[in-house]
Amino acid sequence: MLNGLKHLVGGSHLPRFASTMLRACFAGAQNDIFSDLLIYHTSVEGDSVSLAAFIKDRARALGFDAAGITSADDLAATEEVLLQRIDGGLMAGLSWFTPARARLACRPQELLPGARSIVALAASYNAVEPPLEETGAPRGRVARYAWGSDYHEVLRERLWHLVEEIGRELGYSPGARTFVDSSPLVDREVARRAGVGWVGKNTNVLIRGLGSWAFLAAIILDVPLPEDPPLLTHCGSCDLCIRACPTGALLTPYTLDNARCIAYQTIENRGVIPQELRPLMGDWVFGCDICQEVCPVNRKAARSRWEEFQARGPETARPDLVALLEMDTPTYQARYRGSPLKRARRTGLQRNAAVALGNAGDPAARPALERALETPDAPVRGHAAWALGRIGGREARQALEAARRTEQDPDVREEMHEALAKLP
Asked: Strand, coil or helix: what is 364?
């Protein structure tokens, strides 16, 4: 009987109010079984508090800058919001983000059978921008998170180190599953519920001392742990991020139209960037940090202590646009090995470079764009044609007319026709 009661108390991890009731009901009881039960439950409760403190301490020792714990209960409200946004077309372009995936991402106990707790973690990537020698060549911008090594592998390795340490502390290997961004878990809502940070109006998680310059990660465990309360902080009346977004992707506070976001267009979109968005993208060739750069919380954010997330060099943060447009496969493979920029693929970066060159309007880029009209990749040809139409000049007209005569792709031909129509 005692073993069964131990399973009820320790295995189900009764909440604190139930613990108080047990003590009130059985304090002074003569029955040895219930006395043992109280002692056991008090020990379990104390052990879980100690384990939670151990986990947070070891997480910081492994480099994580913030840690919190929440339950593995379903995130029902977030699931409803996600399904509404899918239905409303706000997740357009992310074909993999289906209603089924949204439901799974909000149900931790389906992600790990027997799940009891979630450890939410954050790691700063707020690196210093490396000094750049000005040569006069037009340059693009890369989102800060991509200046260093690919965070997926870096953080995943640290997470499993933490799981191993938890196992050593417990004396057995717990059921665990780790998550870093691409895995099906709503990491922002988990971080909010675990008290790691609060959600800003730009939809990013804001963390005290770190701002939003942080990667999120999580571990689901089948071990009961005490929960941390969510923060009560919020953005107040500030709406700088909404007003600063050049494409209007932030429709309302906390609501992002994915298809209008520069980050989506430069990274996830494999095809044609809508013409109406191109002039608004400025010099961004991979991601966008505008809504983070204007955020007051980020002004005092600490610098990252992670060596892996420091900028690999000035060309990573501010690449030469002409060199990026003309980059061959071996150069691409060597330069971006182990980098988040590989997600956009070589042709995606070339397409983005063409758009940025068109926005820069530098006539010196015209020869490279003319050569790009002969590249095998249709989107690169089409966006190079658009850029030439923006830069203009007799040479641009001659190159576009010559290329249009031999162009086989109807969409690219249309891009060339529209570019020519804009020239005087």
From this structure: helix
Q: Tell me the two tokens of residue 194.
A: 């675990």
* Pairing of β 284-286 and β 141-142: parallel
pLDDT tens track for 25-64: 444 444 554 444 444 444 445 689 999 999 999 999 999 9
| Listed residue (245, 197, 191, 260) closest to 219, CA to CA | 191
Give ranges for CATH 1.25.10.10 in the chain. 320-424
Residues contacting residue 2 through CB under 8 Å, at least 6 positions apart: 33, 36, 37
Residues annotated as catalytic are: 181
Q: Are 10 and 40 in contact (CB under 8 A)?
A: yes
Pick the CATH number of 320-424 from 1.25.10.10, 1.10.150.170, 1.10.10.60, 3.50.50.60: 1.25.10.10
Phi, psi of 140 (to 5 degrees): -100, 175
Count of other CB atoms within 10 angstroms of residue 36: 13
